[in-house]
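Risk mitigation, structural track. In case the binding assays with inosine 5'-triphosphate fail to produce interpretable data, a predicted complex structure has been prepared as a fallback.
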Amino acid sequence: MSRRNYVNEINFVTGNKHKLEEVKHILEPYGISVKRVTVDKLEIQSNDLCEIAEYSAKIVAERLRIPVVVEDAGLFIEALNGFPGPYSSYVFKTIGNEGILKLMRGVKNRRARFVSAVAYASPNGFVKVFIGVTEGLISIEPRGEYGFGFDPIFIPYEGDGRTFGEMTLDEKSRISHRGKAFRSLAKWLTGH
Ligand code: ITT
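Fallback model:
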């Protein structure tokens, strides 16, 4: 399929209101508005976020007969061999930031990365995936009231030592995995 020019709206399938708010903010400068779609996504089990996002987007686009965008994101901690990765949602709900910090107690290697895989799918079976990665460190203690999920325990290298949880939505979006992936989508959608 050729490039899609002049797209000014996406149908974003998500159950996470924080992600929705971030994506609206990221796409605003491109003149793209975000319509939220809430449906049960079928998520396959895989270690690959791209595969998960791609599969979900394809199924939802075919079912609803509209083009849709699905994002699968996760935190990969090096010393834990990439855990929680694709299980980030479940791990956050169960052990949370305190549980992660407990697992990391006394661990010297605190390197981690946030990954965002954004899949755009149209009802004819076309799918394209955009990836954003932000590298950083797991903090010793949670810090900050902004954001959601693992934000209070993640210190991005591209920042100034603050956690994502200590950054405004705008500050986080400039360097976040989500910002990077969705800006790539926006450039592709608007033909830049
Ligand atoms: P969807 O309905 O869009 O799938 P979700 O909350 O399940 O919402 P993801 O699978 O993309 O979203 O992300 C899994 C979890 O990873 C999410 O619930 C958070 O706990 C965490 N996470 C993802 N992106 C994050 C971010 O930018 N900051 C902090 N935590 C994040």
